[in-house]
Amino acid sequence: MADVDRTFRQLERNMQRVLRDVLSDFGPGSPLLITRGPTQGGQGRKGPPAEWMPPVDVLDAGDHFLIYSELPGVPKDKVKVELSDENTLMISGEYPKPEVYEKAQALYAGEIMYGKFARAIPLPPGKFDPNKVEAKLDNGLLTVKVGKAEQPQPKQITVE
Questions:
Q1: 111 phi, psi to nearest 5 deg
Q2: E strand residue ranges, the chain
Q3: Which of 49, 58, 54 is nearest to 74 (CA)?
Q4: CA angle 45-46-48, nearest 5°?
Q5: Contact status, residue 97 vs residue 160, Cβ threshold 8 Å
Q6: 2-48 pLDDT, tens digit each
Q7: Quick check: pTM over 0.70?
Q8: Could you give the domains of the chain?
């Protein structure tokens, strides 16, 4: 029975990896807003290696964007948030596996994702202000607020 469980867990991880690889082909200009981050060290990709991607929600809140990411149990000092020049917000870090796992005789269920994680969220070009970014981790929920850039207003020109 343990072999069957292990096989299905491996199948699930493989399916998640395939889905991430397929979605990584869509860039910021695609209809998909949230893509796999530039991870795994693949050709043409930059960024931290990752073993899993945290789930995220991205909201347009009027004068700013709100990005929420579930990171239960991840210590604040293990989370990194970066805003690149390429209009990409990168959330990365590591959720270390507790030492008790190394000493355990068997693992009967293994659904919690441990290890390095990364998620890239493309933002609309020219629509955000890199100086107005705040990040807060509270009770396992990362909240990133990205202020929108002030758009130039049309100027009325008097004809003489």
A1: -110, -15
A2: 56-60, 64-70, 79-83, 88-95, 115-122, 128-138, 141-148
A3: 54
A4: 120
A5: no
A6: 677 778 778 887 787 776 666 554 444 443 434 444 433 333 344 56
A7: no
A8: 2-148 (2.60.40.790)
